[in-house]
Amino acid sequence: MRVVRRANERGRVSAGWLDSRHTFSFGHYHDPAWMGFGPLRVINEDRVAPGGGFPPHRHANMEILSYVLSGALAHRDSTGSSGVLRPGELQWMSAGSGIEHSEYNGSEGEPVHFLQIWIMPDRGDLPPAYAQRMFDPAKRQGRWATLASPDGEQGSLAIRQQAWLRGARLAEGEELVHPLDPARLYWLHVAQGGATLDGEALAAGDAVGLTAESGELRLAGRPGDVADLLLFDLPP
Predict the structure, then answer these.
(1) Residues ≥6 apart with Cβ < 8 Å to 122
(2) Residue ranges making up the domain that contains 40
(3) How many separate domains does the chain show?
(4) At which of 103, 120, 135 does a domain end?
(5) How far apart are CA 182 and CA 162, in angstroms?
(6) N or C: which end of the chain has fewer CB within 10 A?
(7) Exposure of 14 by Cβ count < 10 A (0-12 exposed, 13-18 middle, 19+ buried)?
(8) Tens digit of pLDDT for each residue in 170-181?
(9) CA dist., res. 29 & res. 11, Å (int)
């Protein structure tokens, strides 16, 4: 079974310094039909103006990934970890037993555009943890690269869930497949650009969830476009 979540159907929150689109229910946006997808709980597409950001706040027992599309995102947390995230980098923060963190625009003159992703862990109350890693976009061109996984395979970030996050870039004339296990859940999110999935056009912000599907997921690039694709491979 497939469900399509179009970009223009997502929830929206605007706060002057923040323009956010919520794929799933989050904060003041609530839709009982979109509470998450398996352990995937949040995909927020945030645009934060210069000088803006999220002041220190607390989380527990959540795997939080940040993926910057443009600009710079400055991070600081109560473990003493800090860093500035730029396009091509993925940040992992495991809230564990509890962590306080802040995320601010790391530029004084340019907005930051990023995805904030939450995945529920498969075990709780572990010590908080943090890491960030650069993934060369050239190594994702026309192919899947593992960005996050349970054991850090292929240089990916190790997360506390039996889930994999893979990324790819797809240009005109390129095609990409991924085998499907009917015992797993898959969520495809188009971060930027556009592509076609089995002939169906997908634009930036669109997503497709797949449940109990076998065979292959087949993607193709679109004329004059380069897609930045994220594929979540999740337990039911």
Answers:
(1) 39, 160, 161, 162, 235
(2) 10-135
(3) 2
(4) 135
(5) 16
(6) N
(7) exposed
(8) 999 999 999 999
(9) 6
